[in-house]
Amino acid sequence: MTELPLAGFRVGVTAARKVEEQVALLERRGAAVEWAPALSQDPNQVDDVELRAATEDVLARPVDMFLATTGIGMKAWFAAADRWGLADRLVAALGDAEILARGPKSVGALRRRGLRELWAPESECFEDVLEHLRGRDLTGIRIVVQEHGQSLSMVAHALRRRGADVRVVTVYRVVGAEDPEPMFRLIDLIADRELDAVTFTSAPAVAALMGAAGPTGRRDDVVTAFQADVVAACVGPVTAAAFELWGVPTIVPERSRLVAMVKQLETELPSRRGGLALTLTGGSVLLLHGDDVLLDGVEVRLSAAPAAVLQALVANPGNVVSRRALLAMLPSGTAGSEHAVEMAVARLRAALGTKAVQTVVKRGYRLAVGG
Q1: Do 219 and 208 form a contact (C-beta atoms < 8 A)?
Q2: Contact 303, 235 (CB under 8 A)
Q3: What is the pLDDT of residues 161-208, one digit of tens each?
Q4: Which helix (H) or strand (E) holds 97?
Q5: Which domain holds residue 112?
Q6: To the nearest 5 percent, what fractions of the chain are helix, strand and coil?
Q7: Which of 40, 153, 221, 222 is the most exposed, having the fewest neighbouring CB atoms within 10 Å of its CB?
Q8: CATH (domain of 25)
């Protein structure tokens, strides 16, 4: 009988919605699942009074530009406008504006109401929406921003600094889990490295876990565990971006789908346990098995600092790892400065070849793989 791909692995799940589907996907592949919802079972709570006041304010004057950020937020806003008899006016007001949409779900919600976006980023990252607007004169432009569960006040502030008249519409707020005990247990499991991976399907879930880890006194342990032994699996780039603040490497599937995230774990976790083989730019094969490092079959001996840098880089081969994240990976006793990172990278290049580790100016380093 063929062994299931995730047999013997223990995976934490933080989702509150569609959790049965995710648990079933993991368990069918042999994984043992620890479930701890990071958010409420009904996380997206709408304040009708606040939302109606915001909607009437939007309708009071013409809208020049509209930024749609989430599909669930747009659906909730239109549903509320239907109840108030304001839906036709809202659709007309937004239809006269230049619409920018963050991601396919918000695009879908708009199109169901006959609205068409002028532009949407492939990445689903709000930073790319702001980049799209860079260089444009926003003086006097009235911009309405549909806020998703977390505050976009800094985005609004950045737009106002450029002269825009910004109205943020808070459709819903994300609420934490009613019972925090399962999350505290999950934090201990991560910190003690008793899990192989933890899955995340929203940026607020990442924020909730890291927020809960603070009062337990184990936040540093959680960050270190994610940097070294526990895989942080994120459903998409927006969720993964929430980990950047903490210097935590993540894995993200090419398509932001639940099944794709689980299938990525099918290959990621067994490869980490049984050894990881990577083809570097130029054709050399780098093999990592436990503490052993082989380059084209020849053992490479690394001291603690360059070995720590290599572990961080291979966790995201081909992707940039910031100097801050690499500094956090260096062993205790190493000088706490970016110079220590540069020295460790220099020693790693000496061992693997000068082209094995690429410098990405002002961002960090990446392992040169493929080709």
Answers
A1: no
A2: no
A3: 999 999 999 998 878 888 999 999 999 999 999 999 999 999 899 999
A4: none
A5: 47-171
A6: 45, 20, 35
A7: 153
A8: 3.40.50.10090
- In this structure, the dihedral spanned by the alpha carbons of residues 280, 370, 322 and 342, taken in order and rounded to 10 degrees, is 30
* Residues whose CB falls within 8 Å of the CB of residue 288, separated by 6 or more in sequence, listed in order: 275, 276, 277, 278, 294, 310, 311, 314
Q: What is the DSSP letter of 159?
A: H
Type of residue found at 338: E
Lowest mean pLDDT among 23-37, 208-222, 237-251, 286-300: 286-300
* Bridge partners, residue 167, by sequence: 144
- How many folded domains does the chain comprise? 3
The count of other CB atoms within 10 Å of the CB of residue 114 is 8
CB count within 10 Å of CB 78 equals: 20
Final residue of a structural domain among 229, 247, 271: 271
Indicate the residue type of 249. Answer: P
pLDDT band, very low/low/confident/very high, at 336 (cuts 50, 70, 90): low
The residue assigned the tokens 């061992």 is 351
Round to whole Å and give the CA distance between 200 and 179: 18
Backbone φ, ψ for residue 278 (5° rounding):
-130, 140
